[in-house]
Amino acid sequence: MKQLLILTFLSFVSITSAQEKTTLTLKDAIKYALDNKADAKKAQLQVENSEYQIQEVRSRALPQISANGNMTYNPILQLNALPGDFFGAPGTTLLAPLGQKWTATGGVSLTQTLFDQSVFTGLKAARTTREFYQINNQLTEEEVIERVANNYYQVYVLRQKLALAETNLKTTTKVRDIVKGQFDNGLAKKIDLDRMNVNLSNINTQRQQTLNAVQLQENALKFYIGMPMDSQIDIPQTEFEITPAAIAEAPNTANRTEYLLLKKQEELLVLQRKATLAAYYPTLSLSANYNYIGQGPEMPLFAKPSNGVYWSDFSSIGMNLRVPIFSGFGTRAKVRQADVQLKTVQEDIKDTQLALDLDYKNAKTQIENSIITVQNQKENMRLADEILKNINNNYLQGLASLTDLLDAENASTEAQNNYTAAILDYKLAEIKLIKSKGELKTLINK
């Protein structure tokens, strides 16, 4: 009964684990990363934040309205020296208190900018900032796609190596068992059995190392796509068919996101320079206020004239003009700093354009070489496998030595590993070529 319960529990665990395993294509991995990875989310938040920046700058061109109020108590009123002529005492000076013990004021004020060059320039800069963050978001997505694709293919290669190691382990175990049977029957030497055991141990060690590398690389992939570490993933074999990438004429680097981002940065610096120059322009604004004041010997709130408290209103409307005359050459220094920043980004644009052209040339060369290498390694792997089968048959018939068999096994393993590595090099080169053409997002549509 206990054994039955244990078997039932293990079956349940196995079924649950299988249910949690996710088949992850490259397209799925990229979409998952764009939806969950912090880098992509933060770039999207920057785009959202740019809308609020536009609203903030726009608010400077809209009326600014505020309410104000205060309550003042004067325990000791100021005495003012007044001529006695007003009080029927010519030639004398009288000290008389002016004002009331209590004063309360409440009102509303309005300020409207009529002309301010910095506000108008700021609105243009805010809209350009939104476009800058939109391009930056696109660049971030491309960086996420490239990083995910590279790690995705590396997981595949390591899994292929692990599968190869497990196959070699099974094959070598069978050969070792044959040699052991021969040794037990006096048909093989002990040194032959020892060599097979050593070879089997080495293959098992390589398998364990590869298994560890697979786990580490899978963890890295989960991190780059923002997936929980305890998730189980499965990468389908069909994702890695070798289909030569289209190599056409050099793409227009002006369409690359890196280039567009620098051009937008240049546009922002031009607007920043104009905003600095705005300090030379006059500013004009309208101001208006309306207030209500209560004064008396008692707290004015809720008091009436019968209590000696009187309320009255007053208002004002004004135009405010500010004309800058001299700022100690501070504005000129700021304009020159803006000029230097603008020239710096223009140099960056030239250098980036050259670097993007270089990326395409290198990616094109690498993909061409990778295709040749994959074809050569595939043929080499086929020949090595054929040689291994022939020598294995000859060994079983006593026509080949154990040394020949071990050498053929090692050669076959090396050929298969070289072929797998060639596929990885091709896939990484393919990503670089797609990136150099500005088409990384096409990986989502595959």
TrEMBL record:
Cellular location(s): Cell outer membrane
UniProt signal peptide: 1-18
InterPro entries: OMP_efflux (IPR003423), TolC-like (IPR051906)
Domain of life of the source: Bacteria
This protein's record includes keyword Transmembrane: yes
Keywords tagged on the record: Cell outer membrane, Coiled coil, Membrane, Signal, Transmembrane, Transmembrane beta strand, Transport
Gene3D superfamilies cross-referenced by the UniProt entry: Outer membrane efflux proteins (OEP) (1.20.1600.10)
Coiled coil location: 360-394
Family statement drawn from the similarity comment of this UniProt entry: Belongs to the outer membrane factor (OMF) (TC 1.B.17) family.
Name the record gives this protein: TolC family protein
The species this protein was found in: Flavobacterium flavipallidum
